């Protein structure tokens, strides 16, 4: 067996190979190219749709986050407003209660003044009544005895001592 090494391949075999490759190319192009191209196009469209959906979801998530942050900020501001409103109402309530307490204290003082004036008037009336009674008693004592000026002064002092201790003890 002899092996021959040729620098150029045989022309017939080369033509057969080229024709076979060309026929195989046409067969593959007709039956395989369209389905593979459609599959690749469908897959590419699906991937692009998923990418678009992911972009939309990402934008929605960003919008929701911004809304939540705005809501949190608004809630903080409302909380501060509520606290400030409570402080203002507490201050107003304090002022109102203080004014009411002052009015009540003034009313109590006025009632006390009226009561003191009434008691003073009553004491004055009692003193007048007592003075009238004392004058009658003194006159009675004087009439019972023959009195000179010295006896009269002694009787008046004695009577005031007796009446004064008994009246003020009651």
UniProtKB/TrEMBL annotation:
Keyword Nucleotidyltransferase included in the entry's annotation: no
Coiled-coil segments: 47-122
Main localisation: membrane
Segments passing through the bilayer: 6-28
Subcellular location: Cell membrane; Endomembrane system
Protein's membrane topology: Single-pass membrane protein
SUPFAM superfamilies: F1F0 ATP synthase subunit B, membrane domain
GO MF entries: proton-transporting ATP synthase activity, rotational mechanism; proton-transporting ATPase activity, rotational mechanism
InterPro entries (UniProt xref): ATP_synth_B-like_membr_sf, ATP_synth_b/b'su_bac/chlpt, ATP_synth_F0_bsu_bac, ATP_synthase_B_chain
Any one annotated GO CC term: plasma membrane
UniProtKB keywords: ATP synthesis, Cell membrane, CF(0), Coiled coil, Hydrogen ion transport, Ion transport, Membrane, Transmembrane, Transmembrane helix, Transport
Family per similarity comment: Belongs to the ATPase B chain family.
Function recorded in the entry: Component of the F(0) channel, it forms part of the peripheral stalk, linking F(1) to F(0). F(1)F(0) ATP synthase produces ATP from ADP in the presence of a proton or sodium gradient. F-type ATPases consist of two structural domains, F(1) containing the extramembraneous catalytic core and F(0) containing the membrane proton channel, linked together by a central stalk and a peripheral stalk. During catalysis, ATP synthesis in the catalytic domain of F(1) is coupled via a rotary mechanism of the central stalk subunits to proton translocation.
Subunit text: F-type ATPases have 2 components, F(1) - the catalytic core - and F(0) - the membrane proton channel. F(1) has five subunits: alpha(3), beta(3), gamma(1), delta(1), epsilon(1). F(0) has three main subunits: a(1), b(2) and c(10-14). The alpha and beta chains form an alternating ring which encloses part of the gamma chain. F(1) is attached to F(0) by a central stalk formed by the gamma and epsilon chains, while a peripheral stalk is formed by the delta and b chains.
Protein name: ATP synthase subunit b
Originating species: Tissierella creatinophila DSM 6911
Source taxonomy: Bacteria, Bacillati, Bacillota, Tissierellia, Tissierellales
């Amino acid at each position: 067996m002899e092996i021959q090494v040729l620098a150029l391949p045989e022309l017939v075999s080369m033509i057969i190979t080229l024709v076979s490759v060309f026929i195989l190319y046409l067969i593959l192009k007709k039956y395989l190219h369209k389905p593979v191209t459609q599959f690749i196009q469908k897959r590419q469209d699906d991937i692009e749709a998923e990418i678009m959906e992911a972009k939309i979801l990402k934008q929605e998530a960003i919008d929701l986050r911004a809304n939540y942050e705005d809501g949190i900020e608004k809630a903080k501001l409302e909380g501060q407003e509520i606290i400030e409103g409570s402080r203002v109402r507490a201050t107003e309530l304090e002022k109102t209660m203080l004014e009411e307490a002052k009015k009540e204290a003034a009313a109590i003082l006025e009632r006390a003044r009226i009561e003191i004036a009434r008691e003073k008037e009553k004491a004055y009336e009692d003193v007048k009544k007592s003075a009238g009674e004392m004058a009658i008693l003194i006159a009675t004592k004087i009439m019972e005895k023959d009195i000179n000026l010295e006896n009269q002064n002694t009787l008046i002092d004695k009577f005031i001592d007796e009446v004064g201790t008994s009246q003020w003890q009651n």
